Structure formats: C-alpha cells, structure tokens
Here is the input.
Amino acid sequence: MTSLRLLHSWIRANDPGPIALLDPEAPELVDGKAVTGVRLSGPLAEVPRHEILESLNLGATIIYLHGDTGPLHELTTMLEGIGITRLRHGHPEVKPRQIFSSDDVPHSRRDLFGIAGNMAELPDETLLGEERERLALNLLMEKEGIPVSALADAPSHGLNLQTTGCTACGVCVKACPVDALELSYLEIGPDRRISTLSMFDAACVGCRKCIDLCPEDAFTVRGNTSWETRLGEPVKRPLETIPTVQCEKCKTYFPMSQGGTLCQTCKATRDNPFGIRWPEGVPKPPGFKY
Ligand code: SF4
Ligand code: SF4
Here is the structure.
C-alpha cells in the first residue's frame, strides 16, 4: 500500500500550500502552475483515504491527484458534494517546481529541529485506518465550518447491523475491535436475567469480525451507516433482547427458549460424556447422535 506517512511531518513543518501526488504511471506534466510534486512509490489508487484527509488537515491547502485515482474518486466526489474542493483530480497544467519521492522526503531545518510550521497534531499511527478517517473527516468538517448533517446521504464503511437468534454468548462483543457492541443485563431473579445486545453505530468500522465469528449466524447487514451517523454522538441502539437462565452446572447464562436447566455444552457433555463426535461432513451411521 502506498503511504504518505513520511510526508505528514514534512507538510506540517513546511506549510507547502498546494501539492500534487503523482502516480508512478501518470503521464508527464506540462507547464503550468508551480506546485510541489510528490512522486509516489506505489499506485496513487492505493493511498489510504485517511492519509489524504490527514494531509489536508496538516497544512496542504489543495491536493491534486495526478494519475488513476481508483477508489479515491469517491472521496473527491463526497467532499465536492459538501462544498470542499481542496481535493482535485490532477489537471494537465500542474508543473511541479520541486519533485521528490514519498519514500525520500527532504528534511528542512524546521523538520530537523522539530519546529513545526503549524501546531497540527500528527496522526495517531496506532489507530485503525477507518478510525483515523473518521477523526480526520470530522476535523476537516470542523475547519471548513460544515455541519455533519451535510453527510446524511454519504455512506461510510460502518455497517447497519440487525440480529435475529442471538443467544447472548458475547463472542461478537469480545471480537469487535472498537467496542461497537455491548451486552447489558437486567437481573430478574436469582438465576435469570434479561440480556440485551446493543450497538453503537457511530463506532462501527465495518470489519465484519462479529458477522464472521457469530456461532448463530445472527447478523444481517442492512447496508452502510451514513457519515452523519459515524461523525455524530455515539447512540446506543438495542439489537435484541434475550431472556436467559443460568446453567446449573457451569453457571453461564443461556436463552430460556432453549429449555431445561443445562446450557447446550453441558447438555451435550451429559448426554455424551466420552466426547466422541462424528467427523463433520461424513454421513453418520443409523442411530448415531453426535
Ligand atoms: S450476536 Fe452472535 S456472537 Fe453476538 S452475542 Fe449474539 S449469538 Fe453471540
Ligand atoms: S463490523 Fe467490526 S466494528 Fe462493526 S460491530 Fe462488527 S466487529 Fe464491530
């Protein structure tokens, strides 16, 4: 993946004004405006969206994309749709007065002495790309004075999830990398409680781990959430409420709808104490239960 990581501190230290990101395969530039050009080490189309937005926040006044923009085209269109025209497809009149490689960024004195040209914070490299995109887009909207409601129709990478048949096992809650899912409990008796699986739509980064790991295939995707939702206040949305009862053996809670006093695991162990299971996909002999 092509990265602008080294470019970020250069932008912050130098306040370069407009810059042009040049795809290695892009056609030659012709005479025109003088801007700083950055020859990318890989395809322009692979530059992560969050790094583009971060570059705008760090001090690039305009970014020209010169070459095949691939999925970045959607970002340009989305920003243009809300009146932000600082990300543009490279036009043939850009002639860089200075070109350097994205892998070999020149150091200025201000860079070397750590004296930034502006006080913008460098991105937190430990966060997921989708989370960095959310933070960077939020900051850009703030700087441009545009309300998040302007993005009500713009789909984000977040997923609009529903569930049916959840057993409140908690696997998805543990798997979610951004704590977008939560199980809460209301005790209604010594061994009974109502379990509720809820979701914070604003947090979801669309990684699909919850969907892939759910043992009950309980999730359904109803499209993507909007960027307005992603950038808005976190609101807890209940997905499913499950009356549960405590297993008398292992003490975990399981859905009352399954009946009995043992959870599925303890029931299977009781019924089949030697733990023999027929291999998956092989036809079972008559009368073999497991
Ligand atoms: S949705 Fe699936 S993984 Fe999540 S708690 Fe319910 S059953 Fe478990
Ligand atoms: S898709 Fe990923 S981020 Fe979204 S709720 Fe599921 S695990 Fe969490």
Remarks:
- The pocket of iron/sulfur cluster (ligand 1) is lined by residues 163, 166-172, 197, 214, 216, 218 (CB under 6 Å).
- The mean pLDDT is 90.
- The chain is about 25% helix and 30% strand.
